[in-house]
Amino acid sequence: MSHNTFGHMFRVTTFGESHGPAIGCVVDGCPPMIPLEAAEIQLDLDRRRPGQSRFTTQRQEPDAVKILSGVMAHPQTGVQVTTGTPIALLIENTDQRSKDYSEIKDKFRPGHADFTYEAKYGLRDYRGGGRSSARETATRVAAGAIARKVLPGVNVRAALVQMGPHKIARENWNWEEVGNNPFFCPDAEKAAFYADYLDGIRKSGSSIGAVIEVVADGVPAGLGAPIYGKIDSDIAAALMSINAVKGVEIGDGFDAAALTGEENADEMRMGNNGPTFMSNHAGGILGGISTGQSIIARFAVKPTSSILSPRKTVDRAGTDTDILTKGRHDPCVGIRAVPVAEAMVACVIADHFIRHRGQVG
Amino acid sequence: MSHNTFGHMFRVTTFGESHGPAIGCVVDGCPPMIPLEAAEIQLDLDRRRPGQSRFTTQRQEPDAVKILSGVMAHPQTGVQVTTGTPIALLIENTDQRSKDYSEIKDKFRPGHADFTYEAKYGLRDYRGGGRSSARETATRVAAGAIARKVLPGVNVRAALVQMGPHKIARENWNWEEVGNNPFFCPDAEKAAFYADYLDGIRKSGSSIGAVIEVVADGVPAGLGAPIYGKIDSDIAAALMSINAVKGVEIGDGFDAAALTGEENADEMRMGNNGPTFMSNHAGGILGGISTGQSIIARFAVKPTSSILSPRKTVDRAGTDTDILTKGRHDPCVGIRAVPVAEAMVACVIADHFIRHRGQVG
Amino acid sequence: MSHNTFGHMFRVTTFGESHGPAIGCVVDGCPPMIPLEAAEIQLDLDRRRPGQSRFTTQRQEPDAVKILSGVMAHPQTGVQVTTGTPIALLIENTDQRSKDYSEIKDKFRPGHADFTYEAKYGLRDYRGGGRSSARETATRVAAGAIARKVLPGVNVRAALVQMGPHKIARENWNWEEVGNNPFFCPDAEKAAFYADYLDGIRKSGSSIGAVIEVVADGVPAGLGAPIYGKIDSDIAAALMSINAVKGVEIGDGFDAAALTGEENADEMRMGNNGPTFMSNHAGGILGGISTGQSIIARFAVKPTSSILSPRKTVDRAGTDTDILTKGRHDPCVGIRAVPVAEAMVACVIADHFIRHRGQVG
Amino acid sequence: MSHNTFGHMFRVTTFGESHGPAIGCVVDGCPPMIPLEAAEIQLDLDRRRPGQSRFTTQRQEPDAVKILSGVMAHPQTGVQVTTGTPIALLIENTDQRSKDYSEIKDKFRPGHADFTYEAKYGLRDYRGGGRSSARETATRVAAGAIARKVLPGVNVRAALVQMGPHKIARENWNWEEVGNNPFFCPDAEKAAFYADYLDGIRKSGSSIGAVIEVVADGVPAGLGAPIYGKIDSDIAAALMSINAVKGVEIGDGFDAAALTGEENADEMRMGNNGPTFMSNHAGGILGGISTGQSIIARFAVKPTSSILSPRKTVDRAGTDTDILTKGRHDPCVGIRAVPVAEAMVACVIADHFIRHRGQVG
């Protein structure tokens, strides 16, 4: 019953809207004795932060995180460590531009949650979208930074692999490039193309979708559980919970539908460190349990719904009308989903890591 | 913490392996006063049951369901109704062919959960795959039949829309055809093609993947919840938890990545019954909450891992070896996933329906 | 959201009514590789079974338990062990006396759940009480037998320490005596007194309450968690969930209210095996976490509500009437609560044992 | 898996230690459209706040609460209302006296959670007790204030009914008196006695236990659920989770053990508003479900563990030593438990109220 909580043993509860005093989260279930500084969390937040290039919203949020609880200086070493108690993180909202919301206050913006929140709750936070705003994802990134610390030896990275219809060239994949362009793109050549392409989209007042791939290296075999505790099931839920996501794949994903059993089989041979898979169509998961290979997931993000072209809609009074959404928006909201997806996958793996350690003799 | 339980208010816990005495499930949270007979559940089970055509495993299981608890003759009307207490369903295993499992007992079958169960638990049920067997899904179908009864006015249907690389023609979609062929295919012409195609696959000892689409009509607006209670997030988890599923989409899914904001917007106009969407790229869900349109989900199933061609593997002793899997297997396991997917989506909607309006009718 | 499930990592879901085909439970989260035979579970069930003396209901139920899933012969050793997958247990109902229920069908029996079930669900299972019947507790005892196997070195025992106003003499406490009388009483002298006392109660058609004490030895320090994961909080919930229980105490319990801080302090001294407590007012739990001492809990059971003296009540039509409950009932329902309480406490400890092993580095 | 979360539909997650920057909580599942101001929450907090009389710790905390999220001015009425999204509440810590903790840093205080936290986590927050401090309960009171708003017509009140061995006179019970003395005592005469009595305890550096009774009026019939969703089971867990609580009773509680079935039966007669109970031995709950009568619970609080008399203990190095706890402590910690207990019971009832009738107003 966890509308705003995810995870079972490593549990993250988030709160906050873009137009309240603050957003934040509570991470419950983090093991004790893990060194943790706010600066480490800040590093991940800074990667997600808007206003860093012309390709993301110009909203300027310093997104400075404070740790409110759950850590203390170790009595003997003096190093700040987790205590095993809930870690609350707070990010104050500072750039709540006092704009005029009269345009959208009573209209349902197509592609937004305006109509559905109103249907569910009878009201909605029209100032920035309330909980449906991507601003909430900052708190997930903060939680993910803690999840990473729970998982020594595990490296969770993500990259944008498609913008609009334009896919990267797999053979050009270079993780080093991801930090060299504003798109988290691992293909330098394609990143240069995306810059021009997205400039065109942005200047026309339009928006475009994207596909992101997440890769987790170093995950030990045996995480996950049968049936409804499958690690791929949890990853699917976690990625689908990110704003604007419309599809999730593991390993070969939808392409697997076109394969034969022979093609899809990940054969095995003994290697120096035990049984070794010769391919990874499965994306590192079999029967819902990690194989020890890299876990690979991909997800599709729809184009930003807020665009400058007028769209047909209705208002709360039931009158046909048009709407165009002014304001500071991302032309490709998929870009900022990259660090969010890393965080979500890190949280899922940390959760299963803790579950596994407990349940098995 | 629900390895074998799914749902929050409408909770389904399943148990059983193909080589034990029985499989079954407990449905907790079903509202009281709903007429329910075993025969109604049996109807859904019969659609999933193997051994019905040459295109599914020849294992013959009557899959006769018994209701063990949670119903009684209504004291006044005499009609058998739910009482609000847990409904336990039991399906006895009858066709456990006493075959020789020495071939696979100590070898890890590629694409199966053999290696990962062994990594997690230190042992595995090599006789039929234990909990990783598709047999478990019979209990989900049974639970789904109860979920349907919780949802008057909601119709959850699924159809196979792609086998191997061969997609159906959307313009030929006819729900009536789904019951007329062994593939649950809504395109009669394509179904005829599939019969020949799958015969070829089957005779060569190979297998092939598939894509299935689930459509839920009649879902009221307002089901689901923000962030981690999103109905699309729950559907993604539910479908990904089905054996061999590698990808899940909502609405336009991965195709949405290639759309512009203008193309993707589901515009609205006032209709006779209030605000009406003019398209359904979103698949009936915005911000994780149902719009009142049809909910549309698709998922990809990998080819059956058990094939007759020998594949490279290793055994528990760490020796390189080959394996080919004899026995009764589905050449396209996606076919039998069709009623399972309907059941899972029905359960998710029933859960959100009860969360939205309370447990008691 | 677990009306019929308890536990977090070691999860027990129960089902069934006394007048359906069977009762049972699903134990999810039991670690793998634990030797387990139905006969071991049967031993605990036999202790709880009614019809064993004139002091419990004469309903004769063999209560023979079957394991439906979650175990297999270990591939190497042949010993039947748990597999880590859900263990379903089934107990068929055999002695459903086809009595005439017309007397109570439409009347609310004082002290029973008749009125409240009707208020909640709109109907109730008047044949034996449905889920409110003590028959459900047989499934808890079965689950508890598995919990015990998860906890090597832990010994959970319970004893009846008060019947009506008559308390046992603490100085006569002898665990060996518990099996020598039909009251699970550790004081042989008092047990003899209870036999006469309860005969009088029984013959007069009345009933009487009782107090039971549960002691868990061998529990390691460190189980439990702060705030809402406190092991005493979970024990309180578990014991209060048993039929007819109206109060729960840990350690000195209500007597602690009358103590000063000096009296209540459990002082410590170094012993041969580390820090040792010199007393156990706390009942083995401080701050919700086990101290390594014996965990001690007590609970009060109200008198059986079904008595032969007529009581004032109303019927469903809203007419004042009287009711007396014929049939086979326990004059002191607290007696049969003894093995149930042991089972519940064993389940709570097993749950925390698994949680602790996972969460802490 | 909720170490720091309680509730199912109305979920409260708390965080914070007395020596961090702040404490707080997140209330998830509060229905929308409920008017809510920080000032209303502050009223309840002020009742619990320490430093208000010589009988509670002299720590001075303004305990000013801020609402960080989950409310907005209603778009039409302008009244601040809940939005259905998580309500985060923050209370900054201001009076963290920078005292010298060297005395207790390495010693285990008898009766405190020092030893058990160290056993569980390997370290503990010796500055004020970390999560085991009663300071955490301020956040529960804040959450309880919101729960009360969810329950129009329900009145949850508590009173101290016993201090040390001295019980109040039931015939003198007057709810009006509860606010007239620093003990929340409903018996004016006994309150005067307590003042002298507790002065003596306090001046001698000792402490004393207490018993508190909680009464919830106006609870509709039908809340709660069978077996493990029993409302009395949830109340037992909630009250036992409060610091220093060692026992919980519902209705007649432990006294019920000495009653006969005739004495314990709450008989019924038709009243003007339907079936009416003629007594309330059951404390308003039958079969785990509310009867519509007042829900009555009592709990015992042990004496404050921090006392000025030296007690025997050991230190982390394993050396026998003595400890006396200086500092600002409550001579009777039960006093401050009164508003905490009200809050916990209000939260449990709100949770069951929402479970019964759905999340949305």
UniProtKB/TrEMBL annotation, chains A, B, C, D:
Q: Which InterPro entries does its entry note? A: Chorismate_synth, Chorismate_synth_AroC_sf, Chorismate_synthase_CS
EC numbers, comma separated: 4.2.3.5
Protein residues bound to NADP(+): 48, 54
Reactions catalysed, as given in the entry: 5-O-(1-carboxyvinyl)-3-phosphoshikimate = chorismate + phosphate
Top enzyme category: lyase
- Any idea which positions bind FMN? 131-133, 243-244, 287, 302-306, 328
Q: Which UniProt keywords apply?
A: Amino-acid biosynthesis, Aromatic amino acid biosynthesis, FAD, Flavoprotein, FMN, Lyase, NADP
- GO molecular function annotation: chorismate synthase activity
Q: What does this protein do?
A: This reaction introduces a second double bond into the aromatic ring system.
Q: Can you name this protein?
A: Chorismate synthase
The scientific name of the source species is Tardiphaga alba
